[in-house]
Amino acid sequence: MTKVAALILLAGCGILAGATHARAGGPSDHFPNFPGNSPGIAQVVALDECDPTTFNAAEGPDFCKNIALGYSTTLANLLAGAEAGTPDPGWDFEPDTLVINQGTTVVVVDQGGEPHTFTEVKAFGNGFLPPLNPGSAASVIPECAGGFGSVAVAKTRILQGSQLNITGLSKGKHLFQCCIHPWMRMEVDVQ
Prior knowledge:
Layout: H1 3-18, E1 21-23, E2 41-47, H2 52-59, H3 75-84, E3 92-94, E4 97-100, E5 105-110, E6 116-117, E7 119-121, H4 151-154, E8 157-158, E9 163-166, E10 172-177, E11 185-190
Parallel strand pairs: 1-4, 2-5, 4-11
Antiparallel strand pairs: 2-3, 5-9, 6-8, 7-10, 10-11
């Protein structure tokens, strides 16, 4: 990777790290003549900082495909933080909240090192992997029950480098979370 590309990547990460709320509007909202504007599309990024050495030793080769820029979380530290109720903030959806117009497509891109889900839930709660729930709580919210054995959950999975398009959201507030890493949560307000 060239130095310029690395600096651009770092700058983009810095911008995303500070973004917690976003408003998606039409192309004329900010830069009407910018060629990258796509009306009716809002992007969400799934992030994580898995340590390839420890995750791949436990989960198999190429499970974690993180290209860390000097920072990563070991599997043991991720599990310990989740059990203690202080999950790693590097596992996150950005932005945390999103306001969109009805008809907007939400495009969720996994730029992390491992798989995630972007599952709509009635209320936030525990995912399908008890070791990643606070205190290793076993009760799983209904939308995450069954893990990837459930077609409904499997349809919300996003692999590293892939994307998931969410369409047809009705007006109102919609809650989404990762059924694997249940602290990865996001609210989408459709107007």
